[in-house]
């Protein structure tokens, strides 16, 4: 910082003298001694005054006795114009009266005639020096005023303390920032701002640096007068005197609370899930990385629990995203409650997937206990703002070091174990085993082949008759899909339908089945076979697809098949999902004239009152009850109950999986009018089914007594 030294421009001197020769001589004396001086000359007071007004010289050297206006009168006028002007009077008089007059006017120097040149030079020199000092002081004052205005108006809070840290000055911004006025602050130490959030170690370092003459900069987490916390970016440096001794410290504090909050938000967004506040996958991976290093070093076990919420997608789709979000938040909370607060990490991986890290466990059972605790916790109802819900979860567990030594493997294996748990039903956990890798690989290979199978026309339909046991007529042919893969051979639907469900491929596949079955039925009708229904299975996902009815209607139209010749087989579970929409869709399909039957009846949880609401025509007794119907009283009782129920609801009933004559006779005796099973025919490809249809003489009562075969 440069402080102005006062003499940047040379002074101007006005010399007033009526005697020309004297004027020229003295002018020469002056310019010889002070070559930088700008010299103005006048021959009387009036001229001098005019020049003064015009040029405002710093020094006026004047004779006393002059025509027109004398020196004293001119000096008086000049002093009125500028009291700071330095006036040197040259006079022949040295009586006290004149001198007092001169003092009254404010004349600065008095030089007697005859003029002593040295004396005159010395007097002018003195004037120049005092002009220099005055200018310097004026400019320094101006500069200090500017400086203090800058400090006062600074957008940065400034604190000046003495060497013991006692505050001597704070600027208005400091008051604005902290709420402390300068009266409340001066005489105190800056620790009035301490919040306890900045580690004491930081203050010690600070003092060490500044008392050693260095500059400290860093961040404080301070407290305002009203108790609010704020972040300040601060720099503190010593102020020294000319002898390099520290006399004060000056601190600058800038409020960076908003920036800190923005940083915090960014950090939060980068590492935490915004919906649940749980760590996200990035943070989880980092924490897992550290935990693995620890487990490795201390030879400890570590568990990864991977879980998702059963039926979450369905809840989200049917009850809306708000409920979905609330459920995720509540689940996150419940998961945290099941874990060790200070040790375990519960993270959200995305969607309804959560992942839990249990570092430092004693044995596998400890992970199993946590998994069971979570499953149990999820059996409690979730009370959300607008709805109460039950939801379950399936958990996969992998353990370090047995099931993987790195984050990726452990997560992948826990994920795989979760799928295995899901396959076994709801509310399950499963520990990873190495055989799962192989299964996963097979599943992946199958998934890839399945994606290409439709295009490559590897699917075909087999048909299996449903027979009316009283009339011996085939009332319906159930279409059952088969997949003939060049590498894997013939694959049965139970092996690939669930995969098609999971991957969504069931939608195009189901459409193909429906189109092919309807077209085939029409072909048989055109070939003049007695008309019968063709039954097509609909899986849950297929049934939930949007615009299902439009699709069915369109396919019927394309095949030119009357809707009464189409039967849709739905499992009980299909019906239990999204009840309201199911009833709506079924009504639309039924109103078209399509026959609806419930497959595998008795295995689900349908209640009688629910069934009554649905526009269905047939209940199908599941083959698991038919298989042992002659030997197992419970199975027989269920079959009887279903038949009785169907009768009371005026519904048709059919038993599937009838393989033996005994089964058929027993069911006939129970008044089950329709049957399906190997006893009558296995599912057959089109050509064979056509041959079968051609060979039956209608009505063919050999169905009634298969012993006649
Ligand atoms: N043990 C025994 N089994 C018999 C007997 N009679 C018929 N079956 C078998 O029982 C299954 C009857 O079909 P489902 O219960 O609808 O069960 C079907 C159905 O749920 C599903 N499925 C088949 N085709 C399709 C399709 O095109 N779409 C959908 N979504 N699912 C299909 O795959 C399941 C299995 O189909 P398949 O393997 O063809 O197995 C068929 C059939 O071959 C019998 O007397 N004894």
UniProtKB/TrEMBL annotation:
Residues 216-268 form the PAC domain. One of its GO terms (biological process) is cellular response to nitric oxide. InterPro entries: Biofilm_reg_signaling, CheY-like_superfamily, EAL_dom, EAL_sf, GGDEF_dom, Nucleotide_cyclase, PAC, PAS. One of its GO terms (molecular function) is cyclic-guanylate-specific phosphodiesterase activity. Residues 300-434 form the GGDEF domain. Residues 12-128 form the Response regulatory domain. Signal peptide: none annotated. It holds the Pfam family Response_reg. Residues 143-188 form the PAS domain. It comes from the Bacteria. The keyword Iron-sulfur does not apply. It catalyses: 3',3'-c-di-GMP + H2O = 5'-phosphoguanylyl(3'->5')guanosine + H(+). SUPFAM superfamilies: CheY-like, EAL domain-like, Nucleotide cyclase, PYP-like sensor domain (PAS domain). CDD domains: EAL, GGDEF, PAS, REC_YesN-like. The modification 4-aspartylphosphate is found at residue 63. PROSITE patterns: EAL (PS50883), GGDEF (PS50887), PAC (PS50113), PAS (PS50112), RESPONSE_REGULATORY (PS50110). Keywords: Phosphoprotein. Residues 443-697 form the EAL domain. PANTHER family: BIOFILM ARCHITECTURE MAINTENANCE PROTEIN MBAA (PTHR44757:SF2), DIGUANYLATE CYCLASE DGCP (PTHR44757). NCBIfam families: GGDEF (TIGR00254), sensory_box (TIGR00229). This is Response regulator receiver modulated diguanylate cyclase/phosphodiesterase with PAS/PAC sensor(S).
């Amino acid at each position: 910082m440069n402080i102005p030294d006062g003499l940047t421009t040379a002074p101007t001197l006005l010399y007033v003298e009526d005697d020309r020769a004297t004027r020229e001589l003295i002018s020469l004396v002056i310019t010889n001694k002070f070559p930088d001086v700008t010299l103005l000359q006048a021959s009387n007071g009036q001229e001098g005054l005019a020049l003064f007004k015009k040029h405002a010289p710093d020094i006026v050297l004047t004779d006393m006795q002059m025509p027109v206006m004398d020196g004293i009168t001119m000096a008086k006028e000049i002093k009125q114009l500028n009291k700071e002007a330095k006036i040197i009077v040259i006079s022949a008089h040295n009586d006290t009266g004149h001198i007092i007059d001169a003092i009254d006017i404010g004349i600065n120097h008095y030089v007697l005639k005859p003029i002593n040149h040295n004396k005159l030079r010395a007097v002018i020199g003195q004037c120049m020096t005092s002009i220099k000092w005055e200018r310097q002081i004026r400019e320094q004052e101006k500069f200090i005023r500017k400086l203090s205005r800058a400090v006062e108006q600074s957008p940065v809070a400034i604190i000046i303390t003495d060497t013991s840290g006692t505050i001597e000055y704070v600027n208005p911004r400091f008051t604005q920032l902290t709420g402390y006025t300068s009266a409340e602050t001066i005489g105190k130490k800056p620790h009035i701002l301490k919040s306890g959030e900045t580690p004491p170690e930081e203050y010690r370092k600070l003092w060490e640096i500044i008392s050693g003459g260095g500059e400290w900069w860093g961040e404080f987490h301070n407290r305002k007068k009203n108790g609010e916390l704020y972040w300040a970016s601060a720099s503190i440096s010593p102020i020294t005197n000319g002898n390099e001794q520290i006399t004060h410290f000056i601190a600058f504090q800038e409020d960076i609370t908003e920036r800190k909050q923005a940083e915090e938000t960014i950090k939060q967004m980068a590492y935490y899930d915004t919906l649940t506040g749980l760590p996200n996958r990035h943070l989880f991976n980092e924490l897992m990385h550290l935990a693995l290093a620890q487990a490795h070093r201390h030879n400890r076990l570590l568990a990864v629990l991977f879980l998702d919420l059963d039926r979450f997608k369905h809840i989200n789709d049917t009850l809306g995203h708000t409920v979905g979000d609330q459920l995720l938040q509540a689940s996150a909370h419940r998961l945290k409650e099941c874990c060790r607060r200070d040790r375990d990490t519960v993270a959200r991986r995305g969607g309804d997937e959560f992942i839990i890290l249990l570092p430092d466990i004693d044995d596998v059972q400890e992970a199993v206990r946590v998994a069971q605790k979570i499953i149990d916790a999820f059996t409690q109802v979730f009370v959300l703002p607008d709805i109460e819900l039950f939801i379950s979860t399936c958990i996969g567990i992998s353990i370090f070091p047995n099931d993987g030594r790195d984050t990726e493997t452990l997560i992948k294996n826990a994920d795989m174990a979760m799928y295995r748990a899901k396959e076994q039903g709801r509310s399950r956990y499963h520990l990873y085993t190495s055989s799962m890798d192989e299964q996963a690989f097979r599943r992946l290979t199958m998934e890839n082949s399945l994606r290409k199978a439709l295009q490559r026309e590897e699917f075909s339909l087999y048909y299996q008759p449903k027979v009316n046991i009283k009339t011996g007529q085939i009332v319906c042919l159930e279409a059952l899909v088969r997949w003939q893969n060049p590498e894997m051979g013939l694959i049965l639907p139970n092996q690939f339908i669930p995969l098609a469900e999971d991957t969504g491929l069931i939608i195009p596949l189901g459409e193909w089945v429906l189109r092919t079955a309807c077209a085939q039925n029409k072909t048989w009708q055109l070939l003049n076979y007695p008309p019968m229904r063709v039954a097509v299975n609909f899986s849950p996902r297929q049934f939930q697809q949007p615009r299902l009815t439009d699709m069915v209607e369109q396919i019927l139209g394309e095949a030119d098949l009357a809707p009464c010749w189409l039967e849709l087989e739905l499992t009980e579970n299909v019906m239990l999902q999204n009840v309201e929409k199911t009833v709506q869709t079924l009504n639309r399909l039924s109103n078209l004239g399509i026959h609806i039957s419930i497959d595998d009846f008795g295995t689900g949880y349908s209640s009688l009152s629910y069934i009554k609401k649905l526009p269905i025509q047939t209940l199908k007794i599941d083959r698991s009850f038919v298989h042992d119907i002659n030997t197992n009283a419970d199975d027989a009782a269920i079959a009887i109950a279903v038949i009785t129920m169907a009768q009371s609801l005026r519904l048709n009933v059919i038993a599937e999986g009838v393989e033996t004559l005994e089964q058929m006779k027993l069911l006939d005796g129970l008044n089950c009018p329709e049957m399906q099973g190997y006893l009558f025919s296995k599912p057959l490809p089109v050509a064979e089914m056509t041959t079968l249809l051609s060979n039956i003489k209608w009505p063919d009562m050999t169905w009634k007594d298969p012993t006649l075969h």
